[in-house]
Write a structure and sequence with these properties.
Elements: E1 9-11, E2 19-21, H1 24-32, E3 41-44, H2 51-60, E4 64-69, H3 74-85, E5 93-100, E6 103-112, E7 126-136, E8 142-151, H4 160-182, H5 196-212, H6 219-226, H7 230-236, H8 240-243
Parallel strand pairs: 3-4
Antiparallel strand pairs: 1-2, 4-8, 5-6, 6-7, 7-8
């Protein structure tokens, strides 16, 4: 029976079904404490768009952030959306790429530093709006998605093209994290000793890489189809003939 997944939880040490809540917000600085991040760029989803984390990165670690802004920071989000709703200028930068399966994606970004002294968030140098327009060439259908964010990088250090590149890189990482969390259910893993957790993470990422090399869409669905079916995996990887025993003469 499938159990509801509790995001942000880890198994209790006794291996039971009990789980304890982990605070991802307070864990983020601890995970960076041992890393040399001075003058590096830290990207994050909206969960970590927190004033304490921003101060930690810029003031304590001398790093820079690119934070997504959503409903958990309502005042900041309202300030940004209000500004861009009254901004009728063309995008500061635009790129157009093919994303596979007959789809074309146009990404546009608008950036401003005019809110840096206005918004109540530490060390904001620029705010931005990103628009993703995806068109299916076969059906002609178009979908539109908009995202907002803030960065501590100034215009001198990060132009619109650079900001878009940084955010796109973070989105690609989030896709892999989603697959690991929801398909492999990594949070419930009971492997906790020695190098076991690290090795299993490497194997999971290797499996994802194999499938991504063959499909560009529906990775989660394909992994569920192959789950616990050795023959299907061998057929999918086209190595069945190499593993078949020769017939007796």
């Amino acid at each position: 029976m499938l159990r509801p997944k509790k995001v942000g939880t880890l198994p209790v040490g006794d291996g039971s079904d009990e789980v304890k809540q982990t605070n991802e917000i307070t864990f983020a600085p601890k995970s960076l404490d041992t890393l040399p991040i001075e003058n590096k760029d830290i990207t994050s989803d909206a969960l970590h768009t927190q004033t304490e984390f921003a101060r930690y990165l810029v003031e304590q670690r001398k790093a820079h952030y690119y934070f997504s802004v959503k409903g958990n920071q309502p005042t900041l989000l309202d300030d940004i959306t209000t500004y861009f709703s009254n901004d009728s200028r063309l995008a500061d930068y635009e790129d157009k790429v093919s994303v596979g399966h007959g789809r074309i994606e146009i990404r546009r970004i608008w950036v401003t530093s005019e809110l840096s002294e206005y918004v109540l968030f530490p060390h904001v140098a620029q705010v931005y709006r990103i628009e993703r327009e995806i068109t299916d060439k076969k059906s002609g259908k178009t979908s539109l998605a908009t995202a907002y964010g803030v960065t501590s990088r100034t215009k001198k250090d990060a132009d619109p093209k650079t900001i878009l590149y940084k955010v796109r890189g973070h989105w690609s990482i989030e896709v892999s994290h989603y697959i690991i969390d929801w398909v492999f259910d990594e949070d419930r893993s009971t492997i906790r000793t020695g190098y076991g957790p690290e090795n299993m993470t490497r194997l999971r990422r290797f499996a994802i890489g194999l499938i991504k090399s063959k499909v560009e869409k529906g990775i989660s669905k394909k992994m569920r189809q192959l789950n616990k079916n050795t023959r299907a995996v061998l057929d999918y990887l086209k190595i069945t003939k190499n593993t078949r025993r020769p017939c007796a003469a």
